[in-house]
């Protein structure tokens, strides 16, 4: 399961602002710190060392961050309640990959589909409830973040190219499309508006 964490970091030499932000990343080293800070879409509370520290203002800003985490939690909790049959999960994966009937002969598409199914099974092995939208979404993010092949377009290596894809380009688009497919389900919409 995802846990919301408050990341607080600073550069003690005065060259970096004190940064406070909500993250799902458990920061334990430089790599995970970079991952937590890399996502620019999340709200961040920054305090420069030259500025007057106003604890009331920072507290209000942190409260807004906590509200965004509550919205994310509500979304995830609703997805856990919407069950999908094994066939519905496979149909969603096929739609995600834009698989047509003649694509079943395409080695590339079949391999991608099988990788998604394997990611789904791995997600279940790690304890996510099977047969839920939440499990299907986690399988897609696992596939995009860890399995999906990417081209090393900037010479930085496959791992960095995969990370950039997962955050900004085709991988991010695939995750967004998965959310769109799942949220089009009326059962989920009813839970979110209740």
Question: What are the salient characteristics of this protein?
Answer:
194 residues; mainly alpha; three-stranded antiparallel β-sheet; 8 helices
Quick recap of the structure?
By secondary structure, the protein is mainly alpha-helical. Helix content is 59%, strand content 8%.
Layout of helices and strands, plus pairs?
Layout: E1 5-9, E2 18-23, H1 30-38, E3 44-47, H2 55-81, H3 86-96, H4 107-125, H5 133-147, H6 158-168, H7 170-183, H8 186-193
Antiparallel strand pairs: 1-2, 2-3
What is the CA-based Rg, rounded? 19 Å
Distance between the termini: 23 Å
Strand tally is 3
- The coarse overall form would be globular
Task: Please estimate the helix content.
Answer: 55-70%
Largest sheet: spatial strand order: 1-2-3
> Helical stretch count?
8
Mean pLDDT, nearest integer?
81
Strand content: 5-15%
Helix-strand category: mainly alpha
Please summarize the sheet with the most strands.
3 strands, antiparallel
The ordered string of helix (H) and strand (E) elements is EEHEHHHHHHH
Stretches where pLDDT is under 50 for at least 5 consecutive residues are: none
Molecular structure report:
The model has no long low-confidence stretch (mean pLDDT 81). The chain is mostly helical. The longest helix is centred in the middle third of the chain and has 27 residues. The two termini are 23 Å apart. Helix 5 runs antiparallel to helix 7. Helix content is 59%, strand content 8%. The chain has a three-stranded antiparallel sheet with strand order 1-2-3, covered by helices on one side. It is globular, with a radius of gyration of 19 Å.
């Amino acid at each position: 399961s995802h846990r919301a964490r408050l990341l607080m970091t600073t550069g003690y030499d005065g060259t970096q602002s004190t940064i406070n932000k909500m993250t799902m990343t458990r920061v334990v080293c430089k790599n995970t710190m970079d991952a937590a800070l890399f996502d620019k879409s999340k709200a961040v509370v920054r305090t420069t060392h030259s500025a007057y520290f106003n604890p009331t203002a920072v507290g209000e800003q942190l409260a807004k961050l906590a509200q965004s985490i509550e919205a994310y939690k509500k979304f995830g909790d609703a997805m856990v309640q919407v069950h999908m049959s094994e066939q519905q999960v496979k149909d969603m994966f096929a739609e995600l990959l834009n698989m047509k009937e003649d694509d079943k002969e395409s080695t590339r598409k079949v391999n991608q589909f099988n990788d998604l199914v394997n990611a789904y099974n791995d997600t279940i092995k790690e304890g996510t409830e099977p047969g839920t939208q939440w499990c299907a979404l986690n399988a897609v993010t696992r596939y995009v973040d860890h399995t999906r092949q990417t081209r090393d377009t900037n010479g930085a290596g496959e791992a960095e190219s995969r990370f950039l894809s997962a955050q900004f380009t085709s991988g991010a688009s695939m995750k967004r499309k998965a959310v769109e497919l799942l949220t089009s389900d009326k059962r989920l919409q009813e839970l979110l508006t209740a």
